[in-house]
Amino acid sequence: xxxxxxxxxxxxxxxxxxxxxxxxxxxxxxxxxxxxxxxxxxxxxxxxxxxxxxxxxxxxxxxxxxxxxxxxxxxxxxxxxxxxxxxxxxxxxxxxxxxxxxxxxxxxxxxxxxxxxxxxxxxxxxxxxxxxxxxxxxxxxxxxxxxxxxxxxxxxxxxxxxxxxxxxxxxxxxxxxxxxxxxxxxxxxxxxxxxxxxxxxxxxxxxxxxxxxxxxxxxxxxxxxxxxxxxxxxxxxxxxxxxxxxxxxxxxxxxxxxxxxxxxxxxxxxxxxxxxxxxxxxxxxxxxxxxxxxxxxxxxxxxxxxxxxxxxxxxxxxxxxxxxxxxxxxxxxxxxxxxxxxxxxxxxxxxxxxxxxxxxxxxxxxxxxxxxxxxxxxxxxxxxxxxxxxxxxxxxxxxxxxxxxxxxxxxxxxxxxxxxxxxxxxxxxxxxxxxxxxxxxxxxxxxxxxxxxxxxxxxxxxxxxxxxxxxxxxxxxxxxxxxxxxxxxxxxxxxxxxxxxxxxxxxxxxxxxxxxxxxxxxxxxxxxxxxxxxxxxxxxxxxxxxxxxxxxxxxxxxxxxxxxxxxxxxxxxxxxxxxxxxxxxxxxxxxxxxxxxxxxxxxxxxxxxxxxxxxxxxxxxxxxxxxxxxxxxxxxxxxxxxxxxxxxxxxxxxxxx
Amino acid sequence: xxxxxxxxxxxxxxxxxxxxxxxxxxxxxxxxxxxxxxxxxxxxxxxxxxxxxxxxxxxxxxxxxxxxxxxxxxxxxxxxxxxxxxxxxxxxxxxxxxxxxxxxxxxxxxxxxxxxxxxxxxxxxxxxxxxxxxxxxxxxxxxxxxxxxxxxxxxxxxxxxxxxxxxxxxxxxxxxxxxxxxxxxxxxxxxxxxxxxxxxxxxxxxxxxxxxxxxxxxxxxxxxxxxxxxxxxxxxxxxxxxxxxxxxxxxxxxxxxxxxxxxxxxxxxxxxxxxxxxxxxxxxxxxxxxxxxxxxxxxxxxxxxxxxxxxxxxxxxxxxxxxxxxxxxxxxxxxxxxxxxxxxxxxxxxxxxxxxxxxxxxxxxxxxxxxxxxxxxxxxxxxxxxxxxxxxxxxxxxxxxxxxxxxxxxxxxxxxxxxxxxx
Lengths: 657, 423
Prior knowledge:
A: four-stranded antiparallel sheet; three-stranded antiparallel sheet; 25 helices; B: alpha/beta; two-stranded antiparallel ribbon; 13 helices; 15% strand
């Protein structure tokens, strides 16, 4: 594919200046270690494994340069390095394939990695060389045929003055979020492989930078008329860039079904359906629905899942979980916003994360639920394509250490001890975007500081997390997936759409109802099913999604009248239960249901059939259905119940389309 | 990105091959028994003693230890020289020469959740990932009638699909197989509903092609449910009533016995993994009475059910096709606590294996008090690797998480325990 056609989406810094000269004696952290990363030496399957490999252990992904330096230059009395004769060093001999090496040949004699390692050995294998410097920023720059990576350095601790820059394109570790769209070479040049959008990522030191590459499906998009809705403008721009056309909007009947199932967990009644079709005012309908008690019940369940409250059938759910669920429903019923709820979780007033014994579990749970980030990996090691370091994890977890009684009879902030050193860890918030360490929390109740952070830097994370989760609940998928994994290496489907949603979350003051109204009034919400897998993936249209077991039971109950139990969750158990199980059959045969009433009220078979279709499926029967099912609708009550059974157990009722 | 994580792992191909041959067989013969032994895929029965089996009171008796350790239960010689087991396991003792007994399994996870995750998935619990149990990975026939993985009566926590799709989770039969009225739930179509089912099929047909993957998946399971309901031969594998009364007696008319019998039927029908989930082994108090009183006593039930399974597999020539593993999340404290119970003890536990690919013998031992491995400490990750190897799985298989991360089927560095595998 021609390189001229693809587009760089991110605003990139100017073209790369001619490469600056590297310092004469390479510095271990900035010039040697990156080569080892690029050769995969410190990966989990090689020397980065917990037990190392072949007696030689490096920190995973180079997270601990001091230890790595010691492992190479210090251990075995320096047998791995031979300063008098650098070429005889094991650290060169093995990867060059001159001595047996389990990882095979990794270095090329004429390559840059070999040259750097050799120069470093010749200079005495120092840990640092030249003036001390610290990596403060990494950026991608456009270059003919791909990208370059530019690193910015400052003297340690300095915040002022121009940073020294350096081209690290041949030192950075390059990767792509989707190799079927774009592949990236070890020097940052790219090959476009297929249509779509993907991000090119460069990692150097502990920083990651990314840029988007886009290849349209059907030639450059002609953006259809965007309308006034900000989400639609972003959505259509997103599709336009990919050369995809939006799926046509669904008929008002289907839109009404979506709104009712999404907001109050049940299909509309025929009267509600008629009213909506006569005047399809989504905003007014949403305003009415969110005032209903079912709304708080349905979205209380959503929040409980989002906040990871153990389900009622969990092994050790206990009374606390039931109380928490009730509390969430009550808060929603009172119209409490998500910002306030998150604040309560932060302070512990809503005892969500406090059920964990280990402060690290509490910290990780809080980060997932409230901030939409996964800290878990950083519990054990620093991670590539993730900015959280182990130190960040510990410092954040320290905020969640249980308070202990102090000498004065009050409570003092809890302390978390570093398992390696035994020293008390200083509590810190997570670092802000662009910062290397988080703000320290001293002399203040740590959980209050956490809540205060939600008004500051933590707010942006909360807004993006909440906006994405609400979007996922309404559209069946998040712009960021998995929804608790916001990070540089896991970009949203479309950044502009997420920004619009997060902005709306702010404008709504974190209240759920306005945000729901915002999304549901968009053309995107009304879009029909996508034509193909690409359309689903890039959100040109919707994907049909199965009703969750509890939604299914709720919807059946709402339509029938008498309550039915939730169907089993497993796919085969669910199919068997629907087909052969007692729950639907008994509910229908118990009598006194809406189905029986329709049979009695309808005057002609066709009328009975039409009403059943409208009541259960929110639509009129198609001609073929009329023809095929009229006899059953015209027969006795038993046959009519069988028809209702088929509708409830059918593919259409079980999915939100 | 999110294609079938197994299809990309290379696990799928040998089963395709199997399916091809399977289709040529008459309906009644579509059990595992109809295939030549060396080419038939192997099945696993995992008897999971939930709570933690006391190794000292079962397979690692210490007749010479003090009463504070050995308790009041006595030990007896087994068919293997120098190997003593609990006197309440006489049937297994007589058959010990046909079993592999691992006595030096040892790890560091002392709570039920974490220990279960480790033993059932072969991976240490992780804050970011729940790993799939072996049963979720093993078996891939998209159009088989019987599920690839069945839990009797229900799945233990961490015996599920983990990060794999929910379709890989076990089918739970529900109920209590030990009760006379037991039947696997929802298998039988109500004849009075024939018209309703006909209408359902018509409705789905008139609805046209399924929209997207979720609907296709629903249709596949709908079809499987239909075939189970309509194909009496397929359904029969779930039916304990089809067994002669004498066989049911031998296994024991109790939950564990009938669960093991149902497990044997299911693997015979082609189910790849059956989890027999037996609860109530967490004996913090009065362990002696808990193990030796009751109807029947717990150890007696275990003894009878496993011995019956051992004999039955041989008699039916399934011994070369079915691997059986009896395990729990950890052992129990060698020293009795003041309540006469034993607490959690992950540093030593015993695991019993027999059947396909398993070489009989005792591997490893614990010290005189049963506290620590005296030789050959075995990590649970290696047990997992051993089972995977006995089942003929590719140990280098890489599974994919939903976000595309590669995860090894077998934990890094975990080699199968060569001593218990037939060459």
